[in-house]
Amino acid sequence: MPTLDKKALNLYSLDNYALNKSRVDAFVLNGLTSGGGNGGIDLYTTLMLHMDGDNDGTVFADSALSPKIITPTSVLTKTAQKKIGTAAGYFSGAGSFLTIGGDVAQTGDVNRPLTIDTWIYPTAANSAMTIVLQNNNNRAGDFILLIGSTNKIALYRWTGTSTNIKAAFSSSSIAANQWTHIVGEWLADGSCKLGIGGILETITPSDSSASAGGNVVRIGENGNATQGFQGYIDEFRASDNIVRYSANFTPPTEAYSAA
After folding, report:
1. Measured between alpha carbons, how far is 214 from 197 in angstroms, rounded to an integer?
2. How far is the C-alpha of 173 from the C-alpha of 152, rounded, in Å?
3. Average pLDDT per run of 10 along the chain, which is 259 residues long?
4. Structural domains in the chain plus CATH codes
5. Which positions ≥6 away from 74 have C-beta within 8 Å?
6. Half-sphere exposure of 108 (CA within 13 A, CB side)
7. Is the pTM here over 0.90, yes or no?
């Protein structure tokens, strides 16, 4: 298996992704990216948080090939409650979040493919809780994935203004106090796939409006310092310009890896 050097990997930063898309595809087609479960950690992976660490730890590392700086605010790694690896990230609600040092989805196109997949263990129910937000003045392609107040998964995507966004909602609900694997995907045709426990449903987004605060990429809270996540998040992955799940699947039970 050929080895990608650091200089080569720098070509595939998110900022330069569109320019180098054909080269990325060439790497993928030639088998230079692999790993467990729908691609593992590959050149489409823009954020990979295993959430591993010591109990009450405050270090969060991005394992993507082009890693971002992760800054925790009142988030700890906890070893007693975890799904994969040595720990999970514990979020205590509003004021508890991870700040991501850069976009995880390229903007400019509301229908650019996107996949978010992760394990969550909410400790509260019937309360809106942010899983991940990217929003900088409502650019086309910015998004938020959250649990709504009725315990359903919701994926919103901005089209360029706060008064015209697309929204998709799962028909199934998330249970509190147990681990559940979730997926939020946006397809190039404008449809969405939302997955709970490996069961996918295809949804046609509806028109809506929302404001979630500006110029932030966060896990666990929106940009208005509200809708804070209460509970644990483990094995969080964001992937840009790819739809990883097309049919029902068995959720991963091992950490994603790069070949």
Report:
1. 31
2. 4
3. 39 43 36 49 97 98 98 98 98 96 96 98 95 92 95 95 89 97 98 97 90 82 91 98 96 92
4. 44-240 (2.60.120.200)
5. 92, 95, 96, 97
6. 8
7. no
